[in-house]
Amino acid sequence: MDEIFLSPYKPEHSEEKIYKLWLESGFFNPDVCIEKGIVKKDADYFSIVLPPPNVTGTLHIGGAYMLAVEDIMVRYHRMRGKKTLWIPGTDHAAIATQSKVEKLIQKEEGRNRHELGREELLKRIEKFAEESRNTIIEQTKKTGASLDWSREAFTLDEKRSLAVRTVFKKMYDDGIIYRGFRVVNWDPKGQTTISDDEIVYQEEKTKLYTFKYSEDFPISISTTRPETKIGDVAVAVNPGDARYKQYIGKEYDANFAGEKIHIKIVADTLADPEFGTGAVGLTPAHSIADFEAAQRCGLPLKQVINEYAKMITESPLLRDKKTKEARDIVVGWLKNNNLLEKEEEITHHVATAERTGGIIEPLPKLQWFVAVDKEFEKESKKTTLKKMMLSVVDNKEISILPDRFEKVYIHWIENLRDWCISRQIWYGHQIPVWYRNNEIYVGVEAPHGPGWEQDPDTLDTWFSSGLWTFSTLGWPEQTEDLKNYHPTTVLETGYDILFFWVARMILMSTYVLGDIPFKTVYLHGLVRDKDGKKISKSLGNNIDPVDIVKQSGADALRMALIVGVGPGADSKFDIQKVKAYKLFANKIWNITRFVLENTESYEGQKPDSLVGSDVNHISYLDDFVKEITADMENFRFYLAGEKLYHYVWHTFADKIIEESKEKMKSGDPDAVISAQYTLRHILRTSLILLHPFMPFITEEIWPHIKNRDDNLLLVTQWPS
Predict the structure, then answer these.
(1) How many helices (H) and strands (E) does the chain have?
(2) Does residue 5 carry a pLDDT above 90?
(3) Domain 574-715, CATH homologous superfamily name and number
(4) In the chain, where are the structural domains located?
(5) What class, spelled out in words, does domain 194-364 have in CATH?
(6) Parallel, antiparallel, or unpaired for β 177-187 and 251-256?
(7) Cβ-count burial of 537 within 10 angstroms (0-12 exposed, 13-18 middle, 19+ buried)?
(8) 214-258: per-residue pLDDT in tens?
(9) First vs last Cα of the chain: how many Å apart?
(10) With 0-12 CB in 10 A as exposed, 13-18 as middle and 19+ as buried, what is 481?
């Protein structure tokens, strides 16, 4: 027996060494496994892409959970003899990264981006992104993730950039991408449009005001933003609301807080007869819902707030005032003119920009959009992006786990609006459109000839990450990787980005390739602190997974995150759970020491027959292997991990090993060899079953228990 087993298991002595061994073997790369005869050329494939972490910081505890789930899948299928590919990569995360670097520059140098200039700022961002990327990669390796690093990708590298430009041009040529004037989410602080997923809603107490525009106006309306009412062009009432039927089609003029307004009464289902007065003042330039109602009713837009959240108006009372100041002025004016009927306090959700904290102002802007309802021809049939996104889930080409999220997905897609893809920032994929006088050129490469100027805007980050399953496999080239590994087998990610990333990958893949991007979506929940609170630096409850790995080992962290946590379920992280699985790792170590000490004379042969209870132990193990395999095949990793823990500790250690001690003392050679075979066989099988969950300690033990012809445990065949 090796002397290392004479002291407790020390993960800090094993993990770096073991990961280096795996890297040197090349077995994370399926091509190497095929070349070395470990995997057959015609074997089934298993492929998965890593949801690319943002290059804005470091790995967090939720990221460690994601890596653990995916690595369990990957290691299991690799041991099943499949061509197994797990593609790593990082996301440039345009707004998040630029915002972070700008804040650092402002803090350290007191300069903004305009003082630096585009070229210098991009240099600074690229340096920051590269340093952050390297940090994240090293942290990812600490968790034991068996990614094929030879295929590492970055959403802003040249290969992915080519894919982005190619798709943009294809969509533009098909009329799916267009430039239009629509109301979008505008961040006055960051000076850019942002997507719905970059909005954080903050709950706060606010006032709901009920009033009339003038004494002779026949209908009262309610709003939390009276300052925007100088931009109203209509009042919508429900077509079925008898109270207001007589007013539909009538028009009124008023002087509202020093601004001349013209209001038309229109019928539209936006108005809910059961809410408030049942009438809604329409401000089409400053509300996406109102803009859509205005489009239906043929109403004009009247912009009264600018990009800096200041009032633009003829009213001397309000001109150039910040919106909050203007609100107080309008409320005062309403009171002075006896037009304010009611003022009540309500709880309101205020939209803020995730990265800057700025309060979102819906504004009408000329932007680039992806049309989700526009018909185009695909395989000789007329369809839309929305129809394609719905059909592959409706007809079960893609399954979503847990399945309750299928209904959520379908509801969201059915209500999907055109996607604003342009951003007014400098870091990211610059829109591949060039202008010269009245000419426009859209292309994969820049146009020839003088005078062309490229569109200064960049693309929404989700545009490039939406191509992730196939751009990482070499598209637009028709590579062997694309042929062999797409559609990917599984997409594992958090349920919180089901719409923003998962849906857009389905959009892009069905449109570009005419195929699904993945067969199964496995959604994990959020990791919260032990009190159930969201983990964040601002709350002071941030948990660094790398610190935990240093203290207790990656295997203990992985088990603590996985066991008992099913798909889609939020979990409470408790360091005591990690400590418990550190004890479990040491228990496996002690079990191994006992088995090695008591089987030194064992020569590896299987006895002709087993003695006594050993027959039942081996039979039970065979059934147990089938049970664990079924759990693994059906994504029940949370159950498989727990069952393995109980089997190894309570069945193997507490029962089988204790029984074996008596057999060893019996002096009966048949009983001794039967017990030795049983101990080694169960330990060997347990190590294989545990390997996806606890890869480091199992690989450390493996050379001491493996059969003569066995390779690394990493590529050892799963028991059948």
Answers:
(1) 23, 27
(2) no
(3) Isoleucyl-tRNA Synthetase; Domain 1 (1.10.730.10)
(4) 194-364, 574-715
(5) alpha beta
(6) unpaired
(7) exposed
(8) 999 999 999 999 999 999 999 999 999 999 999 999 999 999 999
(9) 29
(10) buried
